[in-house]
Specification:
The protein has 4 helices and no strands. By secondary structure, it is an all-alpha fold. It has a domain of 50 residues.
C-alpha cells in the first residue's frame, strides 16, 4: 500500500509540475514556431475571406441582370487584354518583360522556376 501511495504521489507531482510549467512551455512554443503559426493563420484568414467573397458573388449573381453584367465586363476585359497585349509582337515582348519583372519581385532576382 505504501508503494501505491508513492506512485500516486509521483504521478501527482508530475501532473502539478506539468501544469505549473504550462505557461512557460506555451510561451516557448509560440516563440519557437511564431513564423509557421503566423503563416497558418494567414492562410486560414485567406481561405475564410475567399469563402465569404464566393458567397457574396453567389448572392450578387442571384440578382437579375447582375450575372450577365459581370459576364459582359469579363468579356470586355478579355477582349481588351487580347487587343492590348497579344496581337502584336512588340506588345507581347512588353507583357513578357512585365511578367519577368513581377516574377523577380515575388521570387527574387536569382531564383529560377
Amino acid at each position: 500500500m505504501n508503494s501505491t501511495e508513492n506512485e500516486l504521489e509521483s504521478i501527482k507531482d508530475k501532473v502539478v509540475k506539468f501544469f505549473a510549467d504550462l505557461p512557460e512551455n506555451f510561451g516557448n512554443f509560440l516563440n519557437d514556431y511564431q513564423r509557421p503559426l503566423i503563416t497558418i493563420g494567414l492562410i486560414l484568414v485567406f481561405l475564410i475571406a475567399l469563402r465569404v467573397l464566393i458567397g457574396l458573388v453567389s448572392v450578387l449573381n442571384g440578382i437579375p441582370l447582375v450575372k450577365p453584367f459581370f459576364q459582359a465586363i469579363g468579356l470586355g476585359y478579355s477582349g481588351w487584354f487580347i487587343y492590348r497585349y497579344l496581337l502584336q509582337a512588340e506588345n507581347r515582348r512588353e507583357l513578357s518583360q512585365k511578367w519577368e519583372s513581377f516574377k523577380n519581385d515575388v521570387v527574387g532576382q536569382n531564383q529560377t522556376l
